[in-house]
Write a structure and sequence with these properties.
Blueprint (H helix, E strand, L loop, with lengths): L1 H33 L1 E7 L14 E7 L52 E6 L15 E9 L5 E15 L16 E6 L1 H13 L1 E6 L13 E2 H12 L39 E6 L2 E6 L5
Antiparallel strand pairs: 1-2, 3-6, 4-5, 4-7, 5-6, 5-8, 9-10
């Protein structure tokens, strides 16, 4: 009797547990369905100027708590629309990233209203060794002759957007530098006139700016006299006391007394012993005479 009662209790517990799991799963599923919405995202990396189609788009569930303003839920609404910026795979397609309705694609579709695109010829040095990529901002510097026919280098345009390098409008996933022979810039009509004149009176150079630096800089330009003045100022700069050479005091030279002159000793005369010369016929001989007995 006791065993049957225990078996019934275990079976009842299992049934209640399974029912609880089923109810919880249903509740979680309903909450998940209520907390998401359909959002159209890019199915692959897309470059600015690309025309959209359902083949390059995907529809995913997006949390409602992170709803994005300007997103689309139906990919058919984006058919033939043109991107005005680069979009990565899985990134939502927003209205702010699209060119106006009716744009046919290409570079002209991404030019901002009131702006123009102008292309300038560059080389490895002028093009900042290929580091000026689409989406970057640069300053334009010209080296020419002033009114007195003296050389001058001056920044004439600032914060100019690079639209394309050569025929590429995308910097690429790895943003590798690429040396090209032409760069297309986005400018206002007034800036286009100034840039066109600048490239006829002198040589141009691109100065790459930081992506976060938008502060304007007013410069008077640099002339040859300014360079010479700077060199002269550096040459005539006072030497700090710590680096100046400290003269070392020299001790006065002591007078050296002349050495006493010593008279040379005279050699004592050599006294030869007395000799006696003996002549015997034709033979002549001599003999020393000694003083000792």
């Amino acid at each position: 009797m006791a065993n049957s009662r225990a078996t019934i209790m275990i079976g009842l517990s299992i049934v209640i547990g399974l029912a609880a799991v089923f109810v919880a799963a249903q509740w979680v599923g309903k909450q998940a369905a209520m907390a998401t919405e359909k959002v159209v995202v890019a199915g692959k990396d897309l470059d600015l100027g690309s025309r959209l189609s359902p083949e390059v788009l995907q529809v995913v569930d997006w949390p409602k708590s992170s709803a994005i303003k300007g997103a689309f839920s139906d990919p058919k609404l984006l058919d033939t629309r043109v991107l005005n910026t680069n979009v990565l795979r899985g990134e939502p397609i927003l209205d702010a990233k699209l060119a106006p309705v009716g744009a046919k694609g290409g570079l002209s579709a991404v030019i901002a209203e009131g702006k123009r695109a102008i292309t300038v010829r560059v080389n490895e040095v002028i093009g900042v060794a290929g580091f000026a990529l689409p989406g970057n901002r640069v300053d334009i510097m010209v080296s020419a002759q002033d009114e007195q026919n003296k050389p001058i280098s001056k920044i004439v345009l600032e914060q100019i957007l690079v639209l394309a390098v050569a025929q590429e409008t995308s910097a690429g996933a790895e943003s590798k530098p690429k040396v090209v022979n032409a760069v297309t810039l986005e400018v206002t009509p007034e800036q286009a006139e100034k840039l066109d004149l600048a490239r006829t009176v002198g040589s141009l150079s691109l100065v790459l700016r930081s992506q976060t630096d938008r502060a304007p800089v007013a410069t008077a330009g640099v002339r040859r006299s300014d360079l010479l003045k700077a060199s002269a100022a550096e040459a005539s700069a006072p030497v700090p006391p710590s680096a100046a050479a400290v003269p070392v005091a020299k001790e006065p030279a002591k007078a050296v007394k002349p050495a006493a002159r010593v008279a040379p000793r005279k050699a004592s005369p050599v006294v030869e012993p007395p000799k006696v010369e003996i002549i015997r016929g034709a033979v002549r001989s001599s003999m020393v005479v000694s003083d000792t007995p």
